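Check this.
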Amino acid sequence: MVYANDRSPVHSGPYARYGNRGESFSPDPTIPKGESGHPIHHQFAPGNGIPTSQCMICHIHPGTTVMNSYVGYMWWDEETDAELIYPAQQRSPGSEEKLAVQFRNPNQSAAKSLLADPEFVANLTDLNDRTQQTQFADFHGHGWAFRAVFKHDRKGNLLDHRGEPVADAGNAALRAAVQMPEKIREVYRGADGKGPDAIRRAEAAVAHERDGLPVHLLDIHMERGMHCIDCHFIQDMHGNTKLYGEVRAAIEITCIDCHGTVDRVATLRTSGPASITSSPEGGRDLRTLRTPSGKRRFVKEGGRIYQNSMVEEDLTWEIVQTKATVDPRSDHYNALSAFAKTVRVAEDGQMEWGGDVAPESCAHRNDLMSCIACHSSWNPSCFGCHLVQRANQKAPALHDEGDVSRNLTSYNFQTLRDDVYMLARDGNATGNRINPSRSSCAIHVGSYNNLRESVYVQQQTISAEGFSGIAFSTNVPHTVRGGPRRDASTDFGQLRAGTHETKMCTDCHLAKADDNNAVVAQLLMQGTNYTNFIGRYAWLGMGTGGLAGVVVTEQDEPQTVIGSGFHRIAYPDDFRKHVAADGMLQHASHHAAADIGQRILNPLKTREVLQVQARGEYLYAACGADGLRVYDIAFIDNKGFSQRITTAPVSPLGQQFYVKTAYATAVAAPATTAPDPTRTHDPANFEGSVHELYAYLYVTDLEEGLILVGAGTLLDGNPLNNFLERALTWNPGGLLTGARSITIAGEQAWICCNAGIVVVSLAKPKCPEVLAVIPAPEVIEPRSVAIQFRHAFVCDAEGLKTFDISDPCAPVRLATVPLPRANSVYVARTYAYVAGGPQGLVIVDVEKPAAPFIDQVFDAGGCIDDARDVKLGITYVSQFAYVADGANGLRVIQLTSPDTPGNVGFSPRPTPELVATYPVTKGGVALSVSEGVDRDRAVDESGNQLSVFGRVGARPFNREEQEKMWKREGKPWKVSDDPFDAELYRAVR
């Protein structure tokens, strides 16, 4: 039966006129009118021809296969256009009101916003004539809001269908973009009575109307008028009584069943994972199916195949055959399609394309990768939900048929993005082919006991087999789009990278222009340091002043950064108090550089905390002459503990949370997530193993060089074995003397010391090997190293330097950005953030690592004058820099916000603003800020898996597979998006 769920003619077709309230329009007098919860008519939809809007009732969530992307929407990001969602007067709802709202919307922030009102939610589209950056959807399952996704370039500039920048990106243009599919669909109304030439003329007319308008990125099938039922038939919709291990295994349709392959037209017989159950001979013959009006659903006319709509009987469209797109004699020929589908490496080593070629010799052959690996325009990424369990609220469990408990869990979005595109190996059910992947479950959990004490806050999880619970999943994005517009006059050499609706060569391989280092790092799932999670506490190392966990966000949802633009909107009263306090943060928990016992036994010894790194329940600290110290910070948010940071949470006799060294200068966990190599494996899970190097902490010492400390005991949940000890001390021939910083990138450690930068192999952690030494004058007194894919970024006495590390055994210096002082560097996508001492924060554009340049220098009007360290974290969709500013303390700088031009892009230009400061109040100076949790990093630079994947048999690329994407015979190879680039390709006629 069909329900009235959505007033969009695109999603609901002819049912849109019935509204979105689920009311009955039956003449039956026994059915109440004006009451939600009834089908439009109490009868089954003819031929099961239900509209997509009905599927959207459930398919809006990771647990239900996220289909809102098919109609061009994803979850509202909690922040964009928030002025329209939050009232001008700050709301402080009581516990009963919060509970009532939570049963309509499990996101706690709803209670503070207008989303608490069901009537407001039902009419959310009324805001669409006032929005600045987005358009809201008419569907609202779970009481959530959904926003439209628009085409944009890597800098976030809106683009039209030709890939040209949109001059007028105002509200009227956004509304026109969302309405445009209604016009496009009309091209195919009555198309069964039109010829191909008439259709092409109508398409060209609509295309002309689209010039200069933004593009709403709904799937091209939906744009043509295809509803879910037009692709997913009886098996996919209702199953066959067989229980499958995952949704994908229950699907019988695949792309090639309708579009064919490069060497054959479509068979119109299903061939997906579940097709073997559709008939005795296997597969379903699509030519036997009929629409509710009696038409054949699929019609062959000569060499063309047409499909008739199941929802709107007068809609018909041609199914373009892949074979036709590579045939120069066909009117569907597309040089870019032919290039992508036939490119291969010839016997002489030259890349060539075109001509008659065996499909198995092509690089992008169908058995190796899925069609959607290239033909998806975007993929929804959920970088974290904060799941908070409260043991003091008796309530029925959601979706559990009235089961009552005292544990209520809220579901609080963190960072929702559409700018991330990643590839991985798909699961067993679909043949382990190359496929899109997404961040799907970067969960952070919290818990309150029955005394309303915060037992733990925003903790990451670990899977049963040891991979980080910051999870990923291969998926079907359902965002298929076409390639760049082309005609006889197309100049392929003018195609601009990152401006298209389908993936191009430079989206996945090294660009000839050397400007996509960050893009490929993201694609390979190595992470970009852009979506890191700092959370409620920023951890600060303060030298002789000890360390501090500084409260930088609100405790309630939404957990806005204090002083930020979103804080002003969601907490206007608290924001005014913050401004009145000169932007000073008010709360922090401290720990001295030494325990009380140490100070009593040796009161004259200088003790200091030089560098800190938080991971899970622990904070690792390099403490100079005191060596490595580990602090238990699990109870940092618990009001029931007077000492919230401890060095011996069980007993000084029951554990040893330190390792003495001569003079520890730095400590590195090999990942900010917590993969555990000590856990056992069940072969039925088809999981890999965590590399041994993740069992250790890596400490640099001025005299002793490199020290390995076993850390696996800190991850196993057993406090009885927490006795830390050295696993290795290594300083071959004194090479590492003066070691002062360490960066781990895959199986390599980059150590700054007196000899320069020493690159060490950790492939066998207890048997390290020197791979390379970068001496003077290449580097002078190096202080800090950051690694992104195949480039290293180094701070030394001369400034910021970039190196090509395609061969880590032979780094090649590329460029220098002279700076008076460069203390540390943090690279996030296409920008390097340098703690520049008296200059403040120096922001360097490194999109082209061989040609970096200073984009801007930010010192907040002279306030920031001793920047020692910098880390970045994203909260909702705003990016923040956390700067250790020496004697000035911690500085919180908002780098981007929804008001930043292009904020939805892969790498918008920062617009820095100082929003908060925490002064050093216990002596010492702010030296170090802890790095946040990597939420977009599933694999390291050496191909070692870090995070759990949500499909049986799915995984990121291993080392060999990664290197195939950019290396041949040990050397990098480059691409351009121009198939006629004679320097790179050979076209075969």
Q: What stands out?
A: The mean pLDDT is 93. The longest strand covers residues 381-390.
